[in-house]
Amino acid sequence: MGKKFIDVGQELPPKIRARHAIHEVRPVTIKENFASGNRSCIGCAEVLAVRLTCKALGDNVIIAMATGCMEIVSSQLPYTSWEVPWIHTLFENTAAVASGIEAGLKAMMRKGRIPVQETKVVAMAGDGGTADIGLQALSGALERGHNFLYICFDNEAYMNTGIQRSSATPYGASTTTSPAGKVSIGQITWKKDMPAIVAAHNIPYIATACPSYPFDLMDKVSKAAAVKGPAYVHILSVCPVGWRSPSELSVRIGRLAVETGIFPLYEIENGKYKMSLDLPKLKPVYDYMRLQGRFRHLSEDTIKQIQQRVAEEYQKLVAKAEG
Amino acid sequence: MAKRVGIEVSVAIGEVVTMTNTDVIAAYPITPQTHIVEHPAKLAADGELDAEYIPVESEHSAMSACLGAAAAGARTFTATAGQGLELMHEVLYIASSMQLPVVMAVANRALSAPLSVWGDHSDAMAVRDTGWIQIFTENGQEVVDNILCAFRIAEDRGVLLPVMVNLDGFHLSHVIEPILLPEQSEVDAFLPPNDYPLPLDPAKPVTMGDFGPPFIYTEVKWAQEVNLRKSMETILKCWGEFDRIFKRCYHPVECYRSEDAEVLLLTMGSFSETAMTAIDRMRGEGKNIGLIRLRLWRPFPFDEIRNAVKDAEVLIVLDRALSFGGPGGPVSSEIRSALYNEDRRPKIVSFVGGLGGRDITVSGFQEMINRGIEISKTGSKHEFEIFGVRE
Ligand SMILES: Cc1ncc(C[n+]2csc(CCOP(=O)(O)OP(=O)(O)O)c2C)c(N)n1
Ligand SMILES: [Mg+2]
Fold first, then answer.
1. For testing the chain B interface, which of A69, A74, A81, A108 should be mutated: the one with the most B CBs within 10 Å?
2. Rounded Cα–Cα distance for residues B9 and A321 (Å)
3. Contacts A62 to B, Cβ<8 Å
4. N or C end of chain A: which has fewer CB within 10 A?
5. Closest residue to atom 26 of ligand 1, CA basis
6. Which residues of A touch B206 (CB under 8 A)?
7. How far is CA B84 from CA B61, B110, B141, in A?
8. From ligand 2's centre to the CA of A154, what distance in Å?
9. Three-state DSSP class for residue A99
10. Which of B198, B217, B246 is a domain's end point?
11. Which residues line ligand 1 (CB under 6 A)?
12. How far is CA A93 from CA A67, A168, B212, B261, B310, in A?
């Protein structure tokens, strides 16, 4: 070293650089296609994820969005938060609506009815709209191979209707329809592995992301949008109201979800798994869970059980990436 | 000049949809609609139809994909029947409420349970209030003609509403009829290209499908109601223009030997042709009987119906759907309410029949009319009677 000003990217050994690339700060567009002044709650990381996503997507997109928090906060008549074309119709059909838009553009461009251009059709839905009620429409659209990007904003419950459990709610979380009680720990099922279900459709690109890693999120969304064919990005979005966590800790909690191995960041490109972050040692899940009221009731034994499961699942994933 | 061909009605629909240069067809198969969606798939595979054919995984997604395509500004077609139409239910409201001009053929089918693939109007009646323009057809020619008209009406700038063309499952969908198929040049002259005013377009961003709080929801719905009622003008104009080009004339209400009739029978759909034969026979016996056929179900042709029946003593209404626990079939109760405040109005007798594919023959119609006349004099212990039911 010895130099006064160093170019970090140049000087660090490639291996170390790769490990820290996710934290590299870069200039991004100041243009907001998701306008400020929406009606989201304080500390909502889902809306942060939508904002970053829109920065990455740019102007040449058409967005179809499912019913849910993001739709409600962004589109109340007579206002709109959307600077790009946006359509909401129902809760469970967003992938199908996106299919129709994509097919319509394709036919009209072929016939010369509209100018030929690379407009990306993007479907956005919550975990409920994706993993539960919209799963069939999503599977159909992926299988048919439409050229579209589907983004799941996963806040691990039906937040818009008041924190009811979804199949993406984690084991042990207390929600209004999986409440912890004298004889129940709350949610008694393990979080549905949505990316794995999508991977079974053999689509070209799948990624997980979290707005606590904003550059990684934007990179993945850009990459996914550039794919010809279906792409899927699953974004963990901390919800302070639903998770009963301090609103100023949303970014921190998102980090912890990743650092504990509870929500690993990875990509699946043409079937090949790649971890986005090199974590030599996972933090204890307790560090993540203790900040959230939805886990407050859990016994040490249950937390141990969760810890073990998280470690196992993480190892399986790493094995896939190494294998 | 158009040529007359012997063709299955479902296949003829595919032919005319192809001539409209439809951009997107999204459909899911269900008996008796299958041939309607199979034929365009083959035409597309042969390069004769330049459309995106989306073989969706359900009817819910079929209609949802149609929403997306129509919102992008594409000309959009689908078809379904029975359970498929029910599965689309919530999506149908979106198409009309967001003014997305989708055209759909419905091969009317009974609803389960018990499972029945055969025809009646239960499916269409269950979606009566979804805000679509709804047309009931009598024969193959009328189906083909009205599919063509449906695109023009739906996409009209002053309308922008989805249109449903109902044809009786099997009775119409699967019969081979002599049909005058239009020439491409005639279709081009009749149907302008779809020019949706504010499509989803990155060059001109729009927000569609907003969330409507109480302060504005009522106004939005009233605007929708006014628009659907107002579409009547465009529908009439379209049928008039159709007559000018194709020399076939359609009206919301069709009257057959009804001018001096004391007793009128009212039907919808393909049963009307059988009913006409029954009317002819009874006229031959010197009975003063006529037929009214309701073609346009939404927007409801109040004036035309009032006019058509005002001089009759008795109006016998046949429904092919039940409104369980209610005053009779949906058609009969609507006709009743349309006439209730009129000074001159016939006595109304309600029948339900032809459920789940059961035929009503010519003599069946004669029997129904005679029974209707009897009820008009003596009354019935029921709100309505089911024709030909074994108790
Ligand atoms: C067919 C249908 N069922 C139920 C609802 C009620 N509903 C609206 S949003 C929602 C939950 C949304 O949850 P999610 O998809 O996870 O999005 P979030 O609000 O959490 O961002 C529910 C149950 C609906 N709108 N439509
Ligand atoms: Mg959610």
1. A108
2. 56
3. 72, 200-202
4. N
5. A91
6. 85-86
7. 11, 11, 25
8. 5
9. helix
10. B246
11. A 46, 67-70, 91-92, 125-129, 153, 155, 158-161, 166
12. 9, 18, 20, 51, 47
Of B220, B246, B272, the residue at which a domain comes to its end is B246
Ligand 1 atom with minimal separation from the A159 CA? 20
**Do B84 and B137 have their domain in common?**
yes
The ligand with the least distance to the CA atom of A71 is 1
Core vs surface per residue B251-277: b (16+ CB within 10 A) or e: bbbbbbbbeebebbbbbbbbbbbbbbe
Amino acid at A75: S
pLDDT class of A19 with cuts at 50, 70, 90: confident
Count other C-beta atoms under 10 Å from residue B244's C-beta. 10
Give me the pLDDT at residue A15, please.
77
Give the pLDDT score at A7: 59
Are both B351 and B279 inside the same structural domain?
A: yes
DSSP letter at A2 equals -
Smallest Cβ–Cβ distance between B50 and the set A85, A96, A111 belongs to: A111
Burial class (CB in 10 A: 0-12, 13-18, 19+), B9: buried
Q: Which domains does chain A have, with CATH numbers?
A: 24-322 (3.40.50.970)
B231 occurs within a structural domain: yes
Structure tokens at B210: 């907003």
Residue B94 resides in a domain: yes
Distance CA A283, CA B252 (A): 72
A75–B58: do the CB atoms touch at under 8 Å? no
- One domain for residues B66 and B134: yes
Say if CB B384 and CB B350 are below 8 A apart: yes
Q: Is residue B324 part of a domain?
A: yes
Distance in angstroms between the alpha carbons of the first and the last residue of chain B: 54
Q: Is residue B90 part of a domain?
A: yes
Over residues A39-54, the pLDDT tens digits come to 999 999 999 999 999 9
pTM to 2 decimals? 0.97
Number of domains in chain B: 2
Do residues B97 and B89 touch, judged by C-beta distance below 8 A?
Answer: no
Question: What's at A176, amino acid-wise?
Answer: T
Non-local (6+) Cβ contacts of B221 within 8 A are none
Positions in chain B short of pLDDT 50 = none
Q: CB A84 to CB B202 under 8 A?
A: yes
Give the ligand at the shortest distance from the Cα of A131. 1
Distance between CA atoms of residues B89 and B58, nearest Å: 12
Could you report the per-residue pLDDT of B344-381, keeping only the tens digit for each?
999 999 999 999 999 999 999 999 999 999 999 999 99
The protein residues having their C-beta less than 5 angstroms from ligand 2 (an ion) are A 126-127, 155, 159
Answer whether A143 sits within 8 Å of B57, measured CB to CB.
yes
Is B231 in the same domain as B260? no
CA dist., res. B66 & res. B26, Å (int): 6
CA-to-CA dists, residue B378 to A133, B347, B352, B371, angstroms:
54, 12, 19, 10
The dihedral through the CA atoms of A279, A280, A285, A286 has a sign that is negative
Output the CA A134–ligand 1 centroid distance in Å.
Answer: 10
Sort out which chain A residues have CB atoms less than 8 A from B56's CB and list them: 96, 99, 140, 144
Interstrand relation of A61-65 and A120-126 (parallel, antiparallel or unpaired): parallel
Contact indicator for B190, B11 with CB cutoff of 8 Å: no
The residue of chain B with its CA nearest to that of A84 is B205
Tokens of B124: 């269409």
- Contact list in B for residue A95 (CB cut-off 8 A) is 61
Per the structure, the complete domain to which residue B299 belongs is given by: 253-386
Residue type, B115: L
B176 and B116 both lie in a single domain: yes
- Rounded Cα–Cα distance for residues B282 and B126 (Å): 34
Closest ligand to A66 CA?
Answer: 1
Residue B377, helix vs strand vs coil: helix
Confidence of residue A5 (pLDDT cuts 50, 70, 90): low
